[in-house]
Amino acid sequence: MNTKGFIFDLDGVIVDTAKYHYLAWKALAKSIGIDFTVHQNEQLKGISRESSLNKILEWGNKTLPKDKFMELMKEKNDQYLSYISKMDENEILPGVTQILDYISKQKHPIALGSASKNSKIILKKVNLINRFNAIIDGNNVTKAKPDPEVFLKAANAISIPANQCVVFEDSVAGIQAANIANMISIGIGNATILNEADFVFKDFTEIHQDFLENLIKTKKEELKKV
Ligand code: BG6
Ligand code: MG
């Protein structure tokens, strides 16, 4: 059998946590006199916590001493944690559970590849933690997407060669990371924004079984771009 490895990003793919990141960053930015917009929040998708704060400071034309920077990162995360503490299974995005069911039924390994350091907390909250054979997240990597480190480590953890892995991602940086890793990149979201992906779907309900069957039996090099 042709075994593929399936690697899922978390934020924006399994759950919509961007809204909580937004609220927490907005409050934080306001506390230091910076206005933070929804549009700017879009640009933080897939980006680490530290890089996010650096960008916000840059947009607000501010520099901070290291200890204050660390304090603000903690403040933001405490606020974010208070939002995610209320999450439950209802926040799993449409079609996610079904695709996880399908992949595990076909006995293909599943990994998480996320920039978040809160991934395990979130997966526990939405009761999906046991669905993953490996979890590689912000705690296991030194280089942020578009560097492929997170996905290569995830592939390694499930013992599947990179060119036999399929990555589901909602961020441009994540799609670029999957492409650099020589994996099959599947964008979840807007096809114009995610135009570098091998395939793009609005959400998982648009991914049908025949597409997955074809994906599983075909080599990356032979997959036709849509
Ligand atoms: C990514 C999100 O998955 O994780 C980013 O898209 C976020 O918006 C990053 O900044 C880090 O998350 P956390 O939970 O470690 O602050
Ligand atoms: Mg994401």
Quickly list its features.
226 residues; alpha/beta; six-stranded parallel beta sheet; 9 helices; globular; binds 6-O-phosphono-beta-D-glucopyranose; binds magnesium ion; carbohydrate metabolism; Beta-phosphoglucomutase; metal-binding; magnesium
Walk me through what this model shows.
The structure is a single chain. The chain is of the alpha/beta class and 226 residues long. Helices cover 41% and strands 11% of the residues. The protein contains 9 helices and 6 strands, in the order E-H-H-H-H-H-E-H-E-H-E-H-E-E-H. It has helices at residues 18-31, 38-42, 49-59, 66-84, 96-105, 119-125, 149-157, 172-180, 209-217, and strands spanning 5-8, 110-113, 134-136, 165-169, 184-188, 199-201. Strands 3-2-1-4-5-6 form a 6-stranded parallel sheet. The longest helix is centred in the first third of the chain and has 19 residues, at 66-84. The radius of gyration is 18 Å and the shape is globular. The two termini are 25 Å apart. Residues 9, 11-13, 45-46, 170-171, 174 line the site of magnesium ion (MG).
Mean residue pLDDT:
96
Query: What is the number of beta strands?
Result: 6
Report how far the terminal alpha carbons are from each other.
Answer: 25 Å
**Radius of gyration from the CA trace?**
18 Å
SSE series: EHHHHHEHEHEHEEH
Spatial shape: globular
Strand order of the largest sheet: 3-2-1-4-5-6
The small molecules bound here are:
6-O-phosphono-beta-D-glucopyranose, magnesium ion
Tell me the major beta sheet: 6 strands, parallel
EC number: 5.4.2.6
Cofactor: Mg(2+)
Catalytic activity: beta-D-glucose 1-phosphate = beta-D-glucose 6-phosphate
Protein name: Beta-phosphoglucomutase
